[in-house]
Structure formats: C-alpha cells, structure tokens
Specification:
Blueprint (H helix, E strand, L loop, with lengths): L7 H7 L1 H8 L4 H4 L27 E6 L24 H15 L1 E6 L14 H7 L5 E3 L1 E2 L7 H12 L6 E3 L14 H9 L4 E3 L19 H7 L5 E3 L7 H10 L11 E4 L8 H10 L1 H16 L5 E2 L9 H11 L5 H13 L3
Parallel strand pairs: 1-2, 2-3, 4-5, 5-6, 6-7, 7-8, 8-9
C-alpha cells in the first residue's frame, strides 16, 4: 500500500493551525486522501475481463438474490439466462453456478425472502435448497421488525445456534421502520451474541411502494452507537447518498486500538442492467460519473478494510459488474475489497 497521507482523523488530534488550515479549509482534500486515483485497465465491451492480469484469484460476492424477496411492489425476477428466481432449485443452482465460475466467485451470500413459518423463521428455505447444490453459497436470514415476539425470536435463535446463516438482512425502505425501531433491536442483540453481521438495504429501492426515507444510511449510525458489539453493513453504499454513507463509515471506524469499529459497506447495485446496458452507460459517461462519486466517498471514509464487493445479482451479470467495480477500486485494495474483508467479516472457510 502506498504511503498514507495525513488523515482528517490524525489532524483532529493535532489541533491548532493544522486543524484550521487542513480540515476546515486550505488543503482539505489533500488532508484526507486515502484511496488512489483510478488504476487498472477498463473492461472490454460486453464485460470481458480486462487484458491486464488480475492478482485476485477468487472473489467473494456478499450480495446476491436466488429467490424473489417477497417484498411489496418488487416484481418477480429472473437470472440473466432467463431462469426464474422462484423456479426449481436445480435450475437456479445451474444458473448461479455457471455465473460464479465465469466470474471466479468462490463464495456468494444469498438474501432471504420476507416469508416466515414455524420451521423457517428467517426465510431461508428456498436459498438453502439451492445452496445444497452449489458449494460456496451461504444463506442470509431475515430480520423482520414486525416479528419480534418471544416465540419467533426463540425460533430465530435456534437457527443461529445451528449456524445456518452467515448474516441477517434488514430490508430498510421496503419495510417502513428505521434501524433504531424497537422491532429490530432484539435481532441486533442476537447478531452480537452469535457474532454475525446485520446487513441493511440502503438507498434507492426497486419498489414504488417502499419509502426511501427509511433507507437513508445516516440512520445506521444510531444502531452502530447503541449496539457497539454488533457488526453492521451498509448495502449499496447508501446509493445515491454515498457521502452520507461515507460519514457513517468514517465516524464508526476510528483507527485507535481501543475504538469501536463496527460498520462496513458493500458496493452492490450502484449500476444495474445487462452487458449491453453497461456498454451504453460507459459510452454515455454514466459509469465514469458513478465511479468518480464513489472514489470521493471512499477517500472520505478512510477505511479500505471496510468495503466489500457485492453485485446484487441478477440485477447485473457477475462478470460485468465485477469488472466495473474492479475499475473503481484502486489496484492495491483489490484483494481486500474483493475477498479478504468479506472472508474475515463473515468467517468464510
């Protein structure tokens, strides 16, 4: 990693003229530089891998959907090859396994349905059926803020004890509750007890019935402060509120050894569409605009070890989206963002 320039966090500890000159005005952008400028070759048209060799032999995708989430206003989806998400498990297994192989994805974390039953309190039966056929797939369970009675939570805890999920998911915006609402808080306690993260949907939604005010990333700060032993992930980097998400990351990841560091962000669904759409976005300048906004937010956050690769498949082909994020993230952080950060956070073997 290149020499790190003086950060805002360091400057705040020095005080005086340094704070006034560097943090509050003169030279401020240089004071908190962390991520480097764009590096690496662009992807070829159609999402083919860039010609420049890549040092990351295996990728971890922390955000895919293998079943329809069952959320109000969200239309049924299909894999890029046309396989419906709610079709036979063997068909979806073939579709995702082929995509994982093409994109060198070693592990993929699968989002839950908003559907529960006494024998499936976390909405994972559908993903479990597919994961049983594909090595490297891992279910994520549902944190439902409207289901927090003692009986339900007892069933949830049994699933956590059996280590059947690697995280919990909160569909902010789709479910109209803020992260600090009472219905979520028992899930945070269970997540801390069983040492698994809670992933929040944040930002724009795929449903006009959702209310995006509940999906603003700033609300996650409250949960992070009130539950210091729980690990939280801001999915989609708060898109389009990248800088707000960056502030939550920055503020909750102090570099002091005795400080709390309990917030991560995934980079999924920043742009969606097929390979042809991505090529059109490239020609129109859409991809470069998004990449510029993200690099600014990443520099501000000053915590390369807190970013995670995610695709939100099937909203984009894995290879195409992987190469889009590969262009965005500086080369010296590829191994961390595409693999190591997720492996450590989710305890993947």
């Amino acid at each position: 990693m290149p020499e790190k320039k003086l950060s805002r966090r360091t400057a705040l500890g020095l005080g005086g003229a340094l704070v006034a000159g560097g943090v509050l005005g003169v030279g401020g952008s240089e004071m908190y530089h962390f991520f480097a400028d764009r590096s690496g070759a662009p992807a070829k048209p159609g999402g083919e891998p860039p010609e420049k060799p890549w040092a990351v032999p295996a990728v971890i995708d922390v955000h895919v959907h293998l079943v329809n989430p069952g959320l109000l206003g969200v239309p049924p989806a299909a894999a890029p090859d046309g396989t419906p998400l709610d079709g036979p498990a063997r068909d979806m297994a073939r579709a995702i396994q082929a995509e994982m192989k093409r994109a060198a994805v070693e592990h993929a974390l699968c989002m839950p349905r908003r559907e529960s039953a006494p024998d499936d309190p976390l909405g994972i039966k559908g993903t479990q059926a597919i994961a049983a056929l594909v090595p490297g797939l891992h279910p994520i369970g549902l944190a439902d803020p409207e289901r927090f009675d003692d009986d339900h939570l007892a069933r949830v805890e049994k699933v956590l004890k059996r280590r059947e999920v690697v995280a919990l998911k909160a569909y902010l915006g789709y479910l109209q509750h803020k992260p600090g609402d009472p219905g979520y808080r028992p899930y945070y306690k269970l997540a801390a007890e069983y040492d698994i993260p809670v992933i929040f949907h944040t930002g724009d939604t795929f449903s006009q019935a959702a209310k995006v005010k509940y999906a603003h990333p700033l609300f996650i700060d409250e949960a992070a402060v009130d539950f210091p032993d729980t690990k939280f992930v801001i999915a989609h980097m708060g898109n389009p509120w990248f800088m707000d998400a960056a502030e939550v990351l920055y503020k909750n990841n102090w570099s002091r050894k005795d400080a709390r560091r309990n917030v991560w962000a995934d980079l999924s669904a920043l742009v969606v569409g097929g390979a042809d759409d991505f090529e059109r976005y490239r020609k129109e300048g859409v991809l470069s605009d998004v990449q510029a906004d993200l690099r600014k937010a990443m520099r501000f956050a000053e915590c390369a070890d807190r970013f995670l690769f995610g695709s939100d498949w099937p909203l984009a082909p894995l290879t195409v989206y992987r190469d889009f994020i590969r262009e965005l993230v500086p080369e010296e952080h590829h191994q961390a963002v595409f693999h190591d950060n997720a492996k450590a956070l989710f305890k993947l073997a």
